[in-house]
């Protein structure tokens, strides 16, 4: 089936078959003509030969019998050796002719009976004259004349029979001639039939070939124009010769792949835009959280400073307070209240920092997803390059095919002129395809540049996010330590209060403990400052990330505007 | 009904083609006429002898006699029946030239041609008529030269006259005789034709007498013509020796009229040789002191030759034909009662001599000194 398709669905084979069929038809006609002529010639010569032989034999018999009779009569009138010799020779000749008569072709039973009768008559004529001659030799003239007179009847009958036989042979010849002319007419008819069939077949093949070139070409041109106009929807080119089938298939593949790529680009652009939107929202949230953290930290710092000052005051006034434990207890209660406040604030901010961390994780995820999508986009644009190469190859192949077709058309001369125009069209089409492919390549490179920019930005964003994360973790750790310290402060304050109420001596211990708490407060303040710095740093990173997300959003928008021209 | 019988016979014969049934040979000739008698008797004699010695390949031989009445039309029908019967291995016949020529083409028809061997059909037209056609007698053209040599060398004749039957046979014997006689230095003073209807040879005979007579008169014709010539010669008081071809055979029965006539023949019963002596005595024992003619002797030889062929190559038509074609050409010639049989490529026996017989006391015997 495939071989058949390969054999007969190509233009080359259609043209070859067309010309081959015409030549074959003419050849058959020529062979029929030559064979008919040769058969006729053979039959005619055979018939002529048979007729000639028959006529020769018939004439020969009659002539020799007449010669026989004339010589015999001469001898009867005047006996002479040469007359007798002539009589004998004529009789022998007649006998030979009779044998020839028997060998004639196509004799009927009636003919054979006639020949037998001729032989008998001839033999009897010869015997009668031989006897008459013997009588004449003996001088018995009257008897000789009487004997010779017996010959007349048989001689007349013999002449008649031979003439009848000749007539029948002639009739057969006429019949044969009729048969021959009949045969000639039939052969002539057959010849005309073959010629007519050849002409019709040639016309049909020519029409089909023309249709096979023009229709598909028109469809291909339409499809190419659609692609050129950016309409990448699937095209149906229908059945066409193998050469065009290759082109049509290439165009379909081109359409499919362009369609696929443009579709993906649109989808990706949409997704990038969405991701960028998400990213900027998260960044804003993060910035807000950072600001809150900063504010809280400043408050903590303030609180810690106050606590230290209070502790210092407590330390200096501890000797006096040793005496007035109630005062100390009040102070301790104030410390406990302050620690409570600090813990509350630290807890709140730790929570904020944790939620900021969670948001950062989201951001990282989004950034990573976007990054992998952008990478995919880069890969897709590489496949556009491959495809553009394919289109270029197809264009050059088409160009070559069209050139070949033009050469074939030139060989065909006048008949190929129409086809030459078609071939020129195909070449132009191929050139246009090549130019379109160049455009696509150019567009693709622009897209790729954009994508590369996005990729770079994304990498920076990722690094930044990772920095923010570590800072946030540091902040969270610091806050946790604050909370722990505050708890200890509270416990200590509770114990101070208790001790102040119970034992003055415990005041020393309290003093030392207050000093310890003071040291701790200093470290609290340092931690809070650290957190503040980190939170500020985080804020800056978040702002940079927001800027990157904006760039991404811009790139996606640009990408979307680029592929907007395509209909998929 | 007749066809049914034939069919039954054919079926029976076909059924009997096993290794134990008889081997059947067809015999065709004018058995209802006196000239066919010797052929039938000799054939039966030969079969009897062969079967008495155990047959061929352990099987009996059987003859199927079919009468052709000496007619070409009947001969064709007889030939068709024999040809179409697969049990028939070979056919002996026919006796005369016309029926033999007519039947030859029937026997030779594809796809299963059968051999026909004639004991006495002598027409030159039978030579090479087909690859399955044979005969064991010389053709007519051998008789003229044999008579010429006998007349010139044995009778010492220098002048002869020829009275010939004005048909193919008579003309053939006459022309071959004249040619050979003139070659031997003799003179042929007259060649006079006659037809069956010719009432009298008297003008010819008188003219010959007036021309000074002849040393011998050759009758290149058949028995009736020879009888007419003999009667008129007697009436005219002429006593020239008369010579004739084998178509005169039977004239010895005319007694004094034929006394002393010389007749050429392919075979005469008094031919020397052990085999012929045994055949003649067996024939006389079987049929009451009668003598076989050349037709009977030929038939006897043919059956013996066929028995030898079947014994050698088996009862197959094609094998028998091939065997016969090789007799005298690759296989040794067959030595029979009529002499040595060696076929040429045309189914003839060109080396077989023609003997000259003489009528003595109502019998045709071999002329002494040949």
Describe the structure.
The complex is a heterodimer of chains A (568) and B (370). Chain A folds into 2 domains: 8-208, Four Helix Bundle (Hemerythrin (Met), subunit A), CATH 1.20.120; 242-563, Orthogonal Bundle (Helix Hairpins). Chain A starts with a helix and ends in a 5-residue tail after the last helix. Chain A has 568 residues and is mainly alpha-helical. The longest helix of chain A is centred in the middle third of the chain and has 88 residues, at 325-412. Chain A contains 11 helices and no strands. In chain A, helix 3 runs antiparallel to helix 4, helix 6 packs parallel to helix 10 (417-502) and helix 10 runs antiparallel to helix 11. Chain B has helices at residues 2-15, 37-52, 72-84, 97-107, 143-154, 168-183, 202-210, 223-236, 274-287, 294-313, 317-326; strands at residues 23-29, 61-67, 88-92, 115-118, 133-135, 159-165, 187-194, 216-220, 242-244, 262-265, 334-336, 339-341, 355-360, 363-366. Chain B has 11 helices and 14 strands. The N and C termini of chain B lie far apart (55 Å). In chain B, the strands form 3 sheets. In chain B, strands 7-6-8-9-10-13-14 form a 7-stranded mixed beta sheet, with helices on both faces. Chain B has a 5-stranded parallel beta sheet with strand order 2-1-3-4-5, with helices on both faces. Chain B has a two-stranded antiparallel sheet with strand order 11-12. Chain B folds into 2 domains: 2-138 and 272-353, Response regulator (Rossmann fold), CATH 3.40.50.2300; 142-265, Response regulator (Rossmann fold, 3-Layer(aba) Sandwich), CATH 3.40.50. At the A-B interface, helix 3 and helix 4 of A face strand 7 and helix 7 of B.
